[in-house]
């Protein structure tokens, strides 16, 4: 009953909080950049997902995008957008909100602190913006490769398209590491002394894997590993969109 109650509260907050916060920020509309408003709304989405579940987080992301449109894109106080830059901002808010809400829901399920670090949010936002603005999925893959190297403090990282040779350790969707059929306690044992794969999917379809080369003695926290999984998912989405456009 406690979980049901929390979920019900989360759904209510998902509907009420975004318009309320957006309304409070309206007087500062002329001096506050839309990107700052969007980040504030993303934090609301994170809080809802951490309180409730994935569906509540998704609802909050949609609500945030709708009220961002209503209050902060011209013409104001109308559910229409006329400027391409505003359309892009609203879409990015929705994409980032959905991605971060899923990340927060994972963190809640694993009973760890929710991802609210500004650097992590900025990396997810930048990757979503790149995926939105480029038709070249390879550019997104290269960007994510660089992001993974920094987030996980790797010695190196490369992407293999559509291959599953060998049986290397694997970074899983929940941020854990498995090797063969066994769970590898990365927090206690450190990274395995070999490359670790992070598989990339788009719309359920396997497109390849990032091969992570750990730095000895450096163990990224669970939050960083969850961010890495989210970045890989964004690369998979870009590859899937490109495949759909080409009829593949």
- Strands, total number: 6
Mean pLDDT: 82
What structural class do you assign from the helix and strand content? alpha+beta
Helix content: 55-70%
**Distance between the ends:** 47 Å
Largest sheet entry: 3 strands, antiparallel
Order of helices and strands: HHHHHHEEEEHEEH
The Cα radius of gyration reads 19 Å
Shape: globular
In the predicted model, the low-confidence regions spanning at least 5 consecutive residues are none
Provide the domain count.
Answer: 2
Please tell me about this protein's structure:
It is a single chain. It contains eight helices and six strands; from the N terminus they run H-H-H-H-H-H-E-E-E-E-H-E-E-H. It is an alpha+beta fold and 248 residues long. The protein starts with a helix and ends with a helix. Strand 3 and strand 4 form a beta hairpin. The protein has two domains: 115 residues, no CATH class; 113 residues, GAF domain (Beta-Lactamase, 2-Layer Sandwich). The mean pLDDT is 82. The protein is globular, with a radius of gyration of 19 Å. The chain is 59% helix and 12% strand.
């Amino acid at each position: 009953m406690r979980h049901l109650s929390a979920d019900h509260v989360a759904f209510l907050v998902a509907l009420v909080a975004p318009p309320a916060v957006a309304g409070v920020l309206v007087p500062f509309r002329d001096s506050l950049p839309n990107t700052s408003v969007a980040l504030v709304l993303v934090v609301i989405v994170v809080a809802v997902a951490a309180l409730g579940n994935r569906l509540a987080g998704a609802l909050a992301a949609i609500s945030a995008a709708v009220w961002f449109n209503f209050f902060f894109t011209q013409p104001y106080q109308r559910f229409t957008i006329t400027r391409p830059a505003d359309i892009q901002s609203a879409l990015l808010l929705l994409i980032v909100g959905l991605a971060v809400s899923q990340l927060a829901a994972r963190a809640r399920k694993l009973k760890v602190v929710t991802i609210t670090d500004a650097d992590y949010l900025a990396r997810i936002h930048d990757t979503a913006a790149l995926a939105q603005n480029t038709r070249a999925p390879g550019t997104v893959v290269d960007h994510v490769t660089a992001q993974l190297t920094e987030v996980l403090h790797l010695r190196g990282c490369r992407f293999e398209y559509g291959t599953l040779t060998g049986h290397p350790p694997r970074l899983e969707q929940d941020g854990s590491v498995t090797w063969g059929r066994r769970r590898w306690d990365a927090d206690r044992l450190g990274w395995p002394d070999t490359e670790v794969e992070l598989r990339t999917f788009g719309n359920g379809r396997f497109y390849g894997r990032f091969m992570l080369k750990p730095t000895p003695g450096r163990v990224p926290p669970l939050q960083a590993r969850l961010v890495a999984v989210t970045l890989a998912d964004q690369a998979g989405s870009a590859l899937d969109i490109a495949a759909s456009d080409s009829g593949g």
